[in-house]
Fold:
Amino acid sequence: MPDAYENINMAMRSILTTDIGDNEDPYFQFNDLTSMSSTSVLSPFSSSGSQGNMSMTSPMSTSSSPMHITDDYINLTNAVTILGEPYISVLVQPMEKFRFRYKSEMVGTHGSLLGVYNGRKRNKNNVPTVKLHNYLDKAIIRCTLVTTDEDLRIPHAHRLVRRVDSADIGDPHYMEVSSQNDFTAEFVGMGIIHTARRHVKDEIVRKLREEALEERKRSNIDATLNLRDDAQIKADAEQYQKTINLNSVSLCFQGFIKDEHNIMRPITAPVYSNSVNNLKSALTGELKICRIDKYTSSCEGGEEVFILVEKVSKKNIKIKFFELDDDDTEIWMDYGRFSELDVHHQYAMVFRTPAYRDRNITSPKEVFIQLERPSDSYCSEPIKFTYKPTDRMIGRKRTRISHSNSAELVQALAFNNDILMNTSLTSTPLSNDSTEISKEIKKMLDDRCSSSEFRDFVEHINLDSKFLLYETLLNQGGEDKLTYDGAPSKKASINFNICYLQNTLSKFLSLYQCCMLDDKLFAKDVIIDTIKDMKMKPREAKDIIKISFKDRTTYGDTPLHCALRYGQKNNVKRILMLMSTLNTDAEELVNIRNSSGKTPLHYAASQDQPEIIQALLMLGADPNITDHYGQMPLHRAVKFLEAEGSINILLAEKDVNIEANTDYGWSPLQLAAQAGSYHAVYSLIKAGADVNNTDMTYGRTALHIAVEGGHKDIVEFLLKNTKIDVNKKNFSGNTALHTAIVTPGTKAKEICALLVKYGADPHIRNYNRELNNVDGEQIQDIKVEVHSEDENMEECNGQSSFDLASNKPDILQLVSGQNDMLINNTIKEENINDTQKVWMDIDQEKQLASILDETKGWKKLAHYFDYKYLMNIFKQTSSSSLLLLNYIAIQTNTSLSELTNILQNIGEEDAATYMSQILSMKHET
DNA sequence: AATCTTTTCCC
DNA sequence: CGGGAAAAGAT
Structure:
């Protein structure tokens, strides 16, 4: 069916010989025209509605068009011709995601539908806005809610309400436009009411009826709907309710004018906004990866990764891996592997990584992962992910477990088991070795088996031993069962389980110990054998060395690994000496990785053995090899508090990668900051480490981390001697100051003071929207002028450092810049000079505060500034007024003269008078 | 009966 | 307000 505006256009073109085409700048021309002739243009609609031959089905047909040809027409034609046909454009689109609320939720006020921030003009009201173009008289713009489906735009079952004077008005909404408002309609305060599924049909029927009736009335004012129409509408509604998408709506805008019978007549085609999706629904809600447990995988894929996500539905979610080339073109993609069962309660997922496109990479490859929702192909923000080269080269076949003899192992198990089961571990008379073992076991139990060595062991334990172990365990379990008799009570069975678990654990531990015993002798054995062999065949000495030091234990350890692991310094020395005879051939031996990916250098670094590190490096050890946790020797070395040697030796090595992240996403600097190793931090920074690098899991800089650990010396060093960004936000939007305020500890206050001293901005807000204070009262949003231009609008409602400090009066004073004790005098003076221009100096402030303390006027003042929730804090301090004044000075833009007025208004005459004095003094200077 | 979705409720 | 979660309803 032809639209009215099309017909208008056709009529125009038939009249005119030349077609001026679309206007490049209709706005400009429009202004031109209005200024010269808007008053002389007559309304062309004076006689519409009296037409007898209107189409019954289309209100928009040619004949019902308001632009029919009359004598007035020529006048308008000229204008319209120059302008083009009237149309509506969407100046500000509605936001893409919005929470639809049920009727039952519409008590009180909730947020209204805002516009999307559109880059150019920063509207004061950022709300959906449309503009009517090419029309000179006043007109009406109607806004209704329709379906998103472009092929089927029907009225939507949901309601579009608009709050006008505390009453919600349903759609349609009419807004008058004219030259007065630049033909622009802003739809302020709209909300979307989610029609309950069971009412969808009724609602659609209602809206279709309304629409049909309006259409009828355009041709006949007294028209009503007959039964047949009604039946049709009901049938249609029935159909629509099945397919309608309740989580997505569009706004429909159309221009109208009202004729003398109050009938709306369209003057433009309808225009549809972008879709608005229900924020609450898992079908259309936001997709986000909130947290990931690791961001690396072997290029072979198949590694398990845990992620926490915002609400997803398990049937409608994928995890996409993709790689971009330098031009940001996607060059590879695949999906993470998981089943529906791996999606935990819509908020967490466990998946396996797909293999990288090339399984033979030799350097790490950066790719991205993101969530993808197949139903609307919406994607989350991508996060970085790294594929690492495989370590297939590590041989595990050569296990050198001497007691593969069952009897021997069982005996060993029994032996160790006895030790463990004995209640008093230490009191049992034991040989030296046994004492050591029991200590080990005790330690292991204390660590709850968290040691990576133990995990490696369990993982790589050879099959024979495993079988044997299980067998033993089964037998053991059976015996336990037999000894347990009587009716099973819950308690008893729990006890049994615990007992059983303990047994299992101890078995594994015993086995671990046995292997360790064996491994302890490994280095020595090999050295002895090697030397023996060398004596026998002195000519083949080099080959003998090469071969024998490639031998491996269960863990893939070479003799050198073993000697290092067990602290056998002499063995280490012997091996290194033997290796050094090989010259460059030693490089291969010295870089062998064991089954957890560690080289001898890892162990030397972990144990802080500078001489050995030096020796290994001289033999060609590569300091950049990472173990299976992505750790380089450097990552381990930075943890030592006092030792300077190891780090400096490692850092002196050229090509050492000082920014490398572990699999948990930590750089050496961040680890050093966490460990509290001042020296390591110092050395790394001296070696050029980037202080503003952030860790991958929380987005923290070394500063955040040092603050968290309460390492004041490091914090101070970072602030004083580096260009660290004191106000950098981590993933949750917290700055180091936020962290400092919430971190307990004796040095917390001093650290806060340091941060403030070096420019930490307490106004910065994090992304946490919980605005409840300690008393559970709602904190009103403090009206803080955000100065930074690049901040998003949403970021305004997180917590500032003030909010976090609101129940810690001393820290609050500190961040408010009030405490003189802790802040260095020079800095303080600078601050004062800065604020002095707009604020009073400290003495004047104190004077004013004493006046307000006297009269208790500060309470009124606090009330005026809506600081009710801070009352308790103000009360606790020696001068409530002074703190309040500081608060006002820092958090608001109140000028001195404004303050004077405020004081006047709340009846604080004395204070106001004093203020006037200050003001006049300021004017003089 | 268990689990997911929709609706209501509450802080 | 905006966010979260319980209750009710569906599958």
Q: What stands out?
A: DSSP finds 33 helices and 23 strands in chain A. Chain A has a mean pLDDT of 73. Residues 102, 104-105, 194, 196-197, 281-282, 313-314, 346, 772, 776, 778 of chain A lie near DNA strand B (CB under 10 Å from a C1').
